[in-house]
């Protein structure tokens, strides 16, 4: 566990355990939950499809392509235990593949219209 106060900046870093300079890491989705087993009900989305959904989210540059750094303000779910669990999905790409998911960045998915 990592202990922080509510509204305190929480800094995170994820890295590949590889020294291969041709690999790149990308944060695609990051969701918070009051329980460790359910990240769909009563969850809070911080990043979805590479797009910031939490207004306190900020991404930081890294000297290495295979490291992702970001922060957001710590919070607590109302009427819940004080614990907050994170589940993040990261994508590994070839660093110079400009058609890869890593180079697409934020991808807003359009909603389909319901037909009558």
Automatic annotation (TrEMBL):
Gene3D superfamilies for the chain: Zona pellucida, ZP-C domain
Superkingdom field: Eukaryota
Stored Pfam families: Zona_pellucida (PF00100)
Occurrences of domain ZP (ranges): 1-109
Keywords: Disulfide bond, Glycoprotein, Signal
PROSITE patterns assigned to the protein according to its UniProt record, in alphabetical order: ZP_2
Protein name as annotated: DMBT1 protein
Gene label: Dmbt1_2
